[in-house]
Amino acid sequence: MDLGLKGKRALVLASSRGLGLGIAEALCAEGSKVVICGRSQDKLDAAARRLNDAYEGTAYPVVIDLSADNSAEELYRAAKEALGGSIDIVVNNTGGPPPGSIAAVPAEVWRQQFDSMVGRVFDLTALVLPDMRAQGWGRILNTASSGVRQPIPNLGISNALRASIVGWAKTLSAEVAGDGVTVNTILPGRIHTERVDELDAAAAARTGKTVEEVATASRNAIPAGRYGRVEEFAAVAAFLVSEKASYVTGSLIAVDGGSIKGI
Q: In this structure, are 200 and 113 located in the same domain?
């Protein structure tokens, strides 16, 4: 299936590794021009070289720390310059906050995590929307977590803040649908990334179990019986930002191997 992504200009946040890099790779494979970004110049340069050697599309690395003030504006300008025009696709992907109980999170931690995980997403989207609406085509895809539908124990900050993105995205989707802009949110379950390995290690340290015992229990709780692969998740994301998904908006799409128990 031709997804109609050849030549589209995309910006994928937090894309030096993990799910963000997987989505960037899927878009490059479709012939898109993709800005990848993160805090590590070395990781970004290595990723861009690999993608540019392997695919028809082009990856452009941009170093940015989205926890910094005015970083959304800085990234927006750098991405437009790298891509040589307006941004057609934005994938709002952000790193996960530290695990832990939600009962005693300090106020300053809430503010810091909101700014980097949520505030920058709102700011950046507000910057790209005028061009999308003017050209009558745009795709905004937010990566959240299965925890917004079924809260994940010990990931209280993530459960709370990512849920705020879901409410914002649903509201925004109705406002811009008539302009040819779609807004969707994709919910990864247990996709095997470095982040999942880190969470398994944290759970092992907390419970006194081995990492393998934690991972085995986690896999056994998933109806599919395994962790998902990054490329499986990225394929769904690529479809949602494609020409073919023009009538899909305001939706929550889970890629979780059946983990969410609710309807």
A: no
CB-CB neighbours of 211 under 10 Å:
14
Total number of domains in the chain: 2
Centroid of chain to Cα 263:
23
Q: Please tell me the pTM assigned to this model.
A: 0.94
Q: Which residues contact 221 (CB under 8 A, 6 or more apart)?
A: 259
Domain co-membership, 219 together with 165: no
Same domain, residue pair 127 and 76: yes
Please give the Cα distance from 239 to 182 (Å, whole number). 12
Q: What is the pLDDT of residue 127?
A: 98
**In Å, what is the CA distance from 116 to each residue of 105, 111, 123?**
16, 9, 11
Q: Which of 73, 44, 71 shows the shortest CA–CA distance to 59?
A: 44
- Is 261 part of any domain? no
Looking at per-residue pLDDT, the higher value among 174 and 207 belongs to 174
Strand partners, 186: 143, 253
Question: Mean pLDDT, to the nearest integer, of 63-73?
Answer: 93
263 in any annotated domain:
no
| pLDDT, position 203 | 86
The pair of structure tokens assigned to 235 is 């394929």
